């Protein structure tokens, strides 16, 4: 009976669309340009404008530590490193045909993969909610004739529709949206560079790696979902190149534009959209960014549905997508997520070391060479959990973030260990390397 249901579902699904359940094979239909357009569009986010101040390493008083020029360099370094990490996360999906959370069965074991899966679901619901809030707030900047809830509901509806046909949505991005976004970016660069900019070198280079880690954390936020899309890639090379290059280039372009806008409003992040809206035709071109933001919420919501399938493999992603679309819409109507920088820091501290463990084990470890076990009976590998935890601790010791109680706890740990974080230390890089090295060492000692 089950096989008949699966056969009927497969017959109802177009051959070039994502499977409804995990029991169906993933079609390899996305080429390099399809994927490049997808990642490039994700790199151009309204968060790159509204959150540009995060790469300036704001202190406890909220004032930037870095100069605009230092922030641009820190952002570029962090984005390039994050893009390379994103590319690494893309390859296993293309090689195995498995989504991201299912890949973790081979890393941690089937049952232990449930823990990071639940964590990923929670953070993706948070991101999806946050994106709808950002879209609604930006739309209100364009025209306040519609109440905020109206924009939230509209954005939620568009997100849900895109999520039901994910691969078709990716192809639409390549054909239409990417061109419009490119034109809008060029237009705003021309307009903003014509304005009298202040001295971009005024300020410090202290806290450089804090700014770089903030930009890297944005890239890393896509690591837990990369394989959800690259499992449909025709080649591993296309998956790596599109993710690493496509995303990095546009994130750098968008963040530089956001930092220029921030400079024009004297560092007031609450007014960062003003330079875009005040130029000739600014409202028209800014509307392109607002509409394009829906692909961010689409990616978050679709990957949430696919992550849930690691827990419930036979669940239909279409049903999950509709339910999740309703959930994030309701949450966006009732919540106000304000601690963006703290949110990014916590995400980075979890998924940077996890990627270090995955990359080391998949590309260099014995398990990766023998074949990746993504079955429902994959044995538990507690050693990889230990390696992940080691990287997580390193991240927190260097950069515990800005959430007061959490940061206070790790400050107490640092004091007990007589450890002082130095300005040259990158929490992301060191946690990635420590987690990866621990994974290789534990793998050799335990022969897992």
From TrEMBL:
It is found in: Membrane. It is a multi-pass membrane protein. The chain crosses the membrane at residues 38-56, 68-91, 112-136, 148-168, 175-193, 205-227, 239-266, 272-291, 319-337, 343-364, 385-403, 423-442. Its main location: membrane. Keywords: Membrane, Transmembrane, Transmembrane helix. Signal peptide: none annotated. InterPro entries: CodB, Pur-cyt_permease. It comes from the Bacteria. GO terms for molecular function: cytosine transmembrane transporter activity. Residues 1-20 are annotated as: Disordered. GO terms for cellular component: plasma membrane. Belongs to the purine-cytosine permease (2.A.39) family. This is Allantoin permease.
